């Protein structure tokens, strides 16, 4: 299969990877043949990339870092919790959700079970979702990414659970906003921006009153928009004033937001997003945490369609974790645009004169 921008998808193409709704249920299943109507509907729902079946790349299968079952259950739990709070205004900052901590420790335990079973943890977030589903998928992705950093830092089980629960629930304060603000198309008013920024304190107030959620997890909600140079909110904390868990969640939050299609902009490629994080090192984020994070990102994920400096077009077929910028590329089009009769592979680790110029 190969991953294409929606503008390059044609009627007759078949979906190779399932697309999920905001509740984690199947929206369009693998094997469905696309029509103009389906393509237009995908665009309307904010889905800007899809995995398509391709005769030259049938054996190229991007594997999400967690299983479909784990992801679906996590999304459904986040969705149920967030939506259950929509019509429950806080009373003096207090709002009780029975067994919230246990529920999300179990969810993160399943995520950790998937992550711990991998020898080389290299992130390829292959899930697809609608724009309306962004908030719920985003929470799960942030938890996955935060978990990877926690493992890399050698956190013990209790530390991992505090970080993981905090990462899954870091945006729970968004439940106190009108739903139309979650993915508003167009510019925000000053009042709307102020209300959105309040979600950090709202989230902290929800979590700190849960009897089985730690204060460290609650601080992930409070501090994930604080920045290393003091430019963040709500308290303009600096450097080590920001808890390390919240710094980790902040990096994961920004990376996944950048690489996701939003109502107000196109997504960044993983390579562009990692460049952004490096540039923000010791400005917005602790550079050592950024370096640790980027070591585990597939900057050219498997099934990505890329263009080489020669003009050749190919699909990334494999990535060596020790050389993420130099993947193996299966050439499907020559420099003159003609389709190759028999695709062949180029290992960029061995071809130093070749570089990837862009991702399609």
Would you give an account of this structure?
InterPro entries: HD/PDEase_dom, HD_domain, HD_GYP_dom. Keywords: Hydrolase. Pfam families: HD_5. The protein has helices at residues 36-44, 68-84, 100-116, 134-153, 157-168, 190-197, 199-208, 215-223, 244-258, 270-279, 287-294; strands spanning 2-5, 19-20, 26-28, 49-52, 128-129, 305-308, 313-318, 328-333, 339-347, 356-359. The protein is an alpha+beta fold and 360 residues long. A hairpin with a 5-residue loop joins β2 (19-20) and β3 (26-28). The longest helix has 20 residues, at 134-153.
CATH superfamily of the largest domain: Hypothetical protein af1432
Largest sheet: 5 strands, antiparallel
Spatial arrangement of strands, main beta sheet: 9-8-7-6-10
**Structural class, from secondary structure content?**
alpha+beta
Which band does the percent of strand residues land in? 5-15%
CATH domain class of the largest domain: Mainly Alpha
How many domains? The number is 3
Number of strands: 10
Q: Catalogue the unreliable spans.
A: none
- Overall pLDDT level: 88
User: What is the H-and-E element order?
Assistant: EEEHEHHEHHHHHHHHEEEEE
CATH topology of the largest domain: Hypothetical protein af1432
């Amino acid at each position: 299969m190969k991953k294409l921008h929606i503008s390059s998808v044609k009627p007759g193409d078949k979906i190779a990877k399932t697309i999920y709704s905001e509740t984690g249920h199947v929206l369009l299943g693998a094997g469905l043949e696309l029509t103009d109507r389906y393509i237009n509907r995908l665009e309307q729902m904010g889905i800007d990339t899809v995995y398509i079946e391709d005769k030259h790349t049938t054996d190229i299968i991007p594997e999400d870092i967690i299983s479909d079952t784990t992801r679906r259950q996590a999304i459904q739990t986040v969705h149920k919790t967030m939506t259950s709070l929509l019509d429950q205004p806080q009373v003096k900052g207090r709002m009780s959700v029975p067994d919230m901590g246990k529920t999300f420790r179990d969810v993160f335990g399943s995520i950790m079970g998937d992550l711990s079973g991998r020898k080389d943890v290299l992130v390829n977030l292959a899930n697809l979702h609608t724009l309306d589903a962004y908030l719920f998928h985003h929470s799960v992705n942030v938890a996955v990414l935060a978990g990877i950093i926690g493992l890399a830092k050698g956190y013990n089980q209790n530390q991992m659970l505090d970080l993981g629960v905090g990462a899954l629930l870091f945006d729970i304060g968004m439940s106190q906003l009108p739903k139309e603000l979650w993915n508003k198309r167009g510019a925000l008013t000053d009042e709307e921006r102020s209300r959105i920024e309040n979600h950090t304190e709202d989230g902290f107030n929800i979590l700190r009153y849960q009897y089985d959620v730690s204060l460290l997890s609650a601080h992930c909600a409070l501090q994930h928009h604080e920045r290393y140079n003091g430019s963040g909110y709500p308290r303009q904390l600096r450097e080590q004033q920001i808890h390390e868990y919240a710094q980790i969640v902040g990096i994961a939050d920004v990376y996944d937001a950048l690489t996701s299609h939003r109502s107000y902009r196109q997504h960044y490629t993983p390579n562009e997003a990692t460049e952004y994080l490096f540039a923000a090192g010791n400005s917005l984020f602790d550079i050592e945490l950024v370096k640790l994070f980027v070591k585990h990102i597939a900057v050219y994920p498997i099934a990505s369609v890329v263009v080489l400096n020669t003009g050749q077009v190919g699909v990334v077929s494999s990535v060596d974790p020790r050389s993420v910028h130099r993947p193996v590329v299966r050439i499907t089009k020559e420099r003159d645009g003609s389709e190759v009769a028999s695709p062949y592979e180029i290992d960029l680790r061995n071809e130093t004169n070749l570089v990837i110029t862009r991702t399609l």
